[in-house]
Specification:
The chain has about 325 residues and is mostly helical. It is about 70% helix and about 0% strand. The protein has a domain at about 35-180 and about 295-315. The longest helix is centred in the last third of the chain and has 36 residues, at about 240-275. It is flat, with a radius of gyration of 25 Å.
Length: about 325
C-alpha cells in the first residue's frame, strides 16, 4: 500500500497536484487551529494580562520596560540574521529572571513560534530567486502554475528562518512588557515621555479588548450549543457532513454578531464611565498615587541596554554585523 501511494504522489499528475495543494494549504490552515488548541480563549486573555511576581523585572521603572521592546525592535532590524539570534539569547534573560508560570510559558511559546513557522513556510513557497529554482525541496506540477511559484525551496525556508528571528525577538521583548507591567504603569510611562496620556490608555484598552472579544465569541458559541443548535464539527473524512456544518455556521454568524456588537458597545460605555469617574484627562498635569524613582536595578538595566546598543552600533560601523541584502 505504501509503495503504491508513493508512486501515485510522485509519478502521477493527479497525485503531484494533490500533494502540492496539501503543502500549500495544510500548514497555513493548521497553524490557527494549533494556536487555538494550545492556548484557547482563556489563554489568549491571560497572554495580555499582568502577572504579579516578586521579580527584579517587575520592580523596574515602567519607562525602562516600555523602551525595552522599542530598542530591541530597532536593533533586530539593523543586525544581520545570525546576530539577531544572539540578540534573542539576550531577550531570554528577563524571562529567566521573571520565572513565569508553566501556563504562561506555554502561551508565550505558542504565540512566538506560531507566526514564526508561518513565516518560514510562506518564504519557502514564495521566496524565489534564480538560485533557489535549482534548490527546490518539492517542485509543483504544471497544474499549479497559477500559484506563481515553482515549488517549495530550501533557500526560501532558510531565508524564512533568518527573518523569523526578528519576529521572535520582537515578540519576546514585547510580551515581557505585558507580563510585568500593569496598565496604570504603561499609562504613567507614556505620560512621562511627554506623550498624551490618552495614547497609553488606548494602548492598554486595545490589548484588553481583543482577548475579551474572542472570549465572548466562545461563550456565545457555547450558549448556542446549550440551546440545541448543532455546531459540532465533523471529522475530516466525513465529507458528506461538511456542507451541512458550513451552512449551520453561516446561519449562526448573525446570531453571534448582534449580541457581540451590543456587548462591545456596553463595555465601551462602561469603560468611558470609569474613565470619567476617575477624572481622566481633566487636567494637563497628572498626579499619581505612586511615584517611581530610579533605583540601583534601574540604573543597571539602563547600563545593560546602553551597552548592547553601543556594541550593536560598533559592530555595524565595523561592517561585522550589518544587515546583508
Amino acid at each position: 500500500m505504501i509503495p503504491w501511494l508513493s508512486q501515485f504522489f510522485s509519478h502521477t499528475l493527479v497525485g503531484q497536484t494533490i500533494l502540492g495543494y496539501l503543502l500549500m494549504f495544510v500548514v497555513p490552515l493548521s497553524l490557527p487551529i494549533l494556536f487555538v488548541a494550545l492556548i484557547g480563549a482563556k489563554g489568549l486573555r491571560h497572554m495580555f494580562s499582568y502577572e504579579p511576581r516578586p521579580s527584579v523585572i517587575h520592580r523596574l521603572d515602567p519607562r525602562i520596560k516600555v523602551l525595552y521592546p522599542f530598542i530591541i525592535g530597532i536593533l533586530s532590524v539593523l543586525l544581520n540574521w545570525n546576530f539577531v539570534y544572539a540578540l534573542l539569547i539576550f531577550t531570554l534573560i528577563p524571562w529567566i529572571l521573571v520565572r513565569p508560570s508553566a501556563t504562561r510559558v506555554r502561551v508565550v511559546l505558542t504565540m512566538v513560534f506560531t507566526p514564526a513557522v508561518g513565516l518560514i513556510w510562506s518564504q519557502g513557497m514564495f521566496y524565489v530567486t534564480s538560485h533557489s529554482v535549482t534548490h527546490l525541496f518539492y517542485t509543483f506540477p504544471p497544474t499549479l502554475s497559477w500559484v506563481g511559484t515553482p515549488g517549495l525551496s530550501t533557500d526560501g525556508l532558510l531565508y524564512g528562518l533568518q527573518q523569523a528571528g526578528r519576529v521572535i525577538v520582537a515578540l519576546s521583548a514585547s510580551l515581557i512588557l505585558l507580563l510585568t507591567t500593569t496598565p496604570a504603569e504603561i499609562i504613567w510611562a507614556f505620560y512621562k515621555f511627554r506623550m498624551p496620556a490618552a495614547v497609553g490608555l488606548a494602548f492598554t484598552v486595545a490589548l484588553r479588548f481583543l482577548p475579551q472579544l474572542i472570549e465572548r465569541t466562545t461563550v456565545l458559541l457555547q450558549v448556542l450549543q446549550l440551546r440545541g443548535y448543532d455546531l459540532s464539527r465533523p471529522r475530516w473524512w466525513e465529507v458528506a457532513d461538511w456542507p451541512g456544518y458550513i451552512t449551520r455556521v453561516v446561519i449562526a454568524i448573525p446570531t453571534i454578531t448582534v449580541p457581540l456588537l451590543i456587548g462591545s458597545l456596553r463595555s465601551t460605555s462602561v469603560t468611558a464611565m470609569v474613565v470619567d469617574a476617575r477624572a481622566f484627562g481633566t487636567k494637563r498635569e497628572r498626579t499619581s498615587l505612586h511615584e517611581y524613582h530610579l533605583t540601583t536595578g534601574d540604573y543597571c538595566a539602563v547600563a545593560v541596554l546602553t551597552l548592547v546598543s553601543v556594541l550593536t552600533l560598533v559592530l555595524i560601523l565595523l561592517h561585522i554585523a550589518n544587515r546583508q541584502a
